[in-house]
Protein 1
Amino acid sequence: MTKRVAVLMGGPSAEREVSLVSGRDCLKALQGRGFDAFAIDVGADLAERLRQEKPDVCFNALHGRYGEDGIVQGVLELLRIPYTHSGVLASALAMHKPTARRLFVEAGLPVAEGRVIEKDSLAEGDPMARPYVVKPINEGSSVGVKLVFEGDNFDPAADLDHCGREVLVERYVPGREIHVAVMGERALGAVEIRPQGRFYDYEAKYTEGCAKHIMPAPLDAADYEEALRLALAAHRTLGCRGVSRTDLRFDDTRGGRGRFYVLEVNTQPGMTPLSLVPEIAAHQGIDYGALVEWMVEDAGCDR
């Protein structure tokens, strides 16, 4: 019997346009694999749409707030519709960066020095020695992230209206940008990203030619395995399921053995033509269609 799959995309978050691209490509791939797949641009009427359409599974291609923070997952739990990616709690934990950091520390995973501060206090002076990073508490795709270096004269507090009352400030970790995909209970591989600009920001993630992808990441064997270990440990620490992507910094700027730092776990990794999880999966012989089919077959509810 052909599964009827609702591909949830769009939504009201700051990452709406990226979600529409992910959703479009997932929809096409699922239809190509023989699923009765259709799209839903998520809005306030989602529950009613799902009751009308009666899908067997929801493929969650949403990004950002409402889609990967446990909210949509809660709706699907109430309706008892199996869905892809992580459940309510893991999604909420991963999206709330300060909470995820605390759990990583308790699990013995390395994180950069950081703390939560009142957003308005940024106008009073640097909260820690430069360089440092300012991050919204609960956004993805580097939305609202700012790097503050020595000599910068811009206002770190500007353009943070969407961030709420608090922000996370972390010590900037020099070195290399490493991303690891996890699929179920397996770390698939690691890719290094070398952005043209200051860091791997929203534009670099979704604009052709703005970042160089090196797959597999050019690390020695021991460091490569350590990256995979940390990603799988972070995935498990938050209770993730399905596919996730862990973002790491590798500081090898001081000579000797480098050191990894866990930045965050993305429970709804992008599925666009420039996204990292499909690229890593392809390197392991898992093409895009096979990847999305696995995600549908892996779908479930928390209870």
Protein 2
Amino acid sequence: MTRSIVVLLAAMLMTNLSLHAQRAPEEFLLKDGEKKIPVLLVGTFHFGYPGLDSHKTSEEDKIDVLSPQRQKEIRELVDYIARFKPTKIVVEAGKNTGYLMRRYERWQAGTYDLRRKEVDQLAFPLMKRFGLDTLYGCDAPSLVWSLMNSADSTVLKPIAGRIYAAESPEDPMSDRYFEWYDYTDRYALESTMLETFLDMNSEHHIKTMHGHYIIDDFKTDGFEGADGLAMNWYSRNLRIFRRIQMIDADQDDRIMVLFGAGHMAILMQQFEASPEYELVPFHSLSKLK
């Protein structure tokens, strides 16, 4: 076979492949110059250590975010997040954020000192920097919580009670998770706030943290563990995502979501799959100015 014939066949093959190339889904989902709304997920530990999670940080490992050194580090962290240039900030609070806005206004007026709260320390300075006048509270109760606290919950309560009372075998992996949590507490104590947030918001950390939900109490003899997780934790986070969807945002907006780090895995999955949003990785802000 001569060289010219080989070249001709190769050209014909490439032409055939190009004619049958897979079209990107965006060609179908985004029309007439439409673009996705950028979203930055900022997973955080709770600065006031309310002790509501299964892991309790020991007193000696707690960070005092009001100390002069930590305040300096928080300013560095705020500067880093500010590279995203948010136009809307979502926080872990109920839909009525009037009490937060009053707190913000008092801070602006010089009659309120910022407390050991992530909204105070992170959201308020970003609001001030970018001239924002609203906080969007998008926390939500789970479906099972709503049903069990409804007027007529006599049918559901026994069912849910059996699900959450189901026993599961002891899982040594759960103890290893708590060892890891203790280590991350010590790491945070010895690191800057920015270093801690970069680690906590890495994809590997987020997915590893979510893994704790699918061991231990999840491994009941039947489907009770799976049902309990779906009705409570998954339901709550899907409702949170739905509340974010309800925000009146357009393609010029940039949405920052400040929630406890445990929420990030499920929220990340939804934003990555959504045709409406473009997830901006936390670590990628290091490339921006």
